[in-house]
Amino acid sequence: MDTLNLLLDGFGNALTPTNLLYAVLGVVIGTFVGVLPGIGPAMALALLLPITFGLEPTQSLIMFAGIYYGAMYGGSTTSILLNTPGESASVMTALEGNKMAKRGRAAQALATAAIGSFIAGTIGTLLVAFFAPIIADIAVEIGAPSYFAIMLLSLVLVTSVLGSSKLRGFVGLFIGLTIGLVGLDLSTGQARLTLGITQLVDGVDIVVVAVGLFAVGEATWIAAHLRRAPLDIIPVGQPFLSRDDLRRSWRPWLRGTAIGFPFGALPAGGSETPTFLSYVTEKKLAKHDEFGHGAIEGVAGPEAANNASAAGMFVPLLALGLPVTATASILLAAMNTYGIVPGPSLLTDEPELVWTLLASLLLGNALLLVVNLPLAPLWAKLLQIPRPQLYAGILFFATLGAYAVDQNPFDIGLLLAFGAVGFAVRRFGIPMLPLILGVIIGPLMEVKMREALDISNGAVSGLFNEALALVVYAIVALAIVVPLLLDLRRRSRTAPSEPTDEREEATR
Hints:
Blueprint: H1 2-14, H2 17-35, H3 41-48, H4 57-82, H5 91-102, H6 106-141, H7 144-157, H8 166-180, E1 183-184, E2 191-192, H9 206-224, H10 243-265, H11 272-285, H12 297-312, H13 314-320, H14 326-337, H15 346-349, H16 351-372, H17 376-380, H18 387-406, H19 409-427, H20 432-455, H21 467-494, H22 497-507
Antiparallel strand pairs: 1-2
Helix pairs in contact: 1-16, 2-4, 2-16, 3-4, 3-14, 4-5, 4-6, 4-14, 4-16, 5-6, 5-12, 6-10, 6-12, 6-13, 6-16, 7-20, 7-21, 8-20, 9-18, 9-19, 9-20, 10-11, 10-12, 11-12, 18-19
């Protein structure tokens, strides 16, 4: 009951006319910046950080909450309309969302993303408010072996969405893992795969990789086929979900929320793994054979998981002072600017600030739905821009976004190089999903594996000395064995019928 009263007090502070205005401004500005190709929430917050310096701490954090959720939704918009994720967590939304857009269901994809974001963000924020201390205690107890096992599970499950050719899928995964290895070996301090280029010593920024593979790769691929394919204007539907769309979406929204929030609440959990797991889960449970062709479940689940994870990241940030994402790091920097130090004592030292922030997150989430759902047709009309002008604009903003990461001209060269890789993988039919997943998860997996081995003095048993790790390894084993058994069973059933079918054809 105390928590509810504190949250209501937070709403009282957040709902003043001035604070409400800053919340609306944050949502609109965040969405606008997030829609630009190649600019995700972290970059949007970093670019807009200076405009909040003249505000009071409460007003600044309220505006940041609006920018945060607005930029999150903007990232899903570019993923759906342009197949250009503004951040790595939006990669899964692009897989089915862009297919829906090309089928004339862009507005429906945007609507299910907006509603899913609202549901997941609201539930996630309420969970932060009511259960943050308990969840933080659990998160602290999870060690490196369990993190390593969870990441291994993600790489194993990737085989279920690789498409028809497993070989091409593993080639993509190998390319991604190789890119993830570029930089310094944290244990030995030796440079790896840098080719003697000093700018690569710190590794490759994931924003540059994602924008190069998706934005530049997609733009160059389309440009190479403009003369072969007619310039079709993609039809735009109504921005509201039908009864069938709602029936197919509400379960993925809830499942995505349940998958995403725990990962956001875990230190170093991140949002890439839960969005991927949500996609795999919905693909396995789908009753419609639309995955790969624009399944609405493939948008609803990952987008809910993404936003639930985004809400969950406030648990380690507020309770432990531990930023687990790039976006959380920007928020931490903003708090430190005002002398606010997140950690175990924050709830007692700055209760008004914390509960106003949580209330403003709920408020910004609701404003996001109110402001952006009616604008779904406006965003969908981006697809009606002639492709030469559209993809020229994408290349411009992609270059601007890649340069804005570190303001280093070398990143533009890297962007073009990864754009060439993106073009090549499209040319040879290599799936993009395992490639980008290898880039994201590979380095994290290496760090956790080495932490586990260091704790056990190099003994392999260090990877198995946690109960959660053993459970996850059991799931990994099932994920490997069960598809093989099902495949053998299917072959054993179809083998005897083949001669019969041949005799029937001969008789005819």
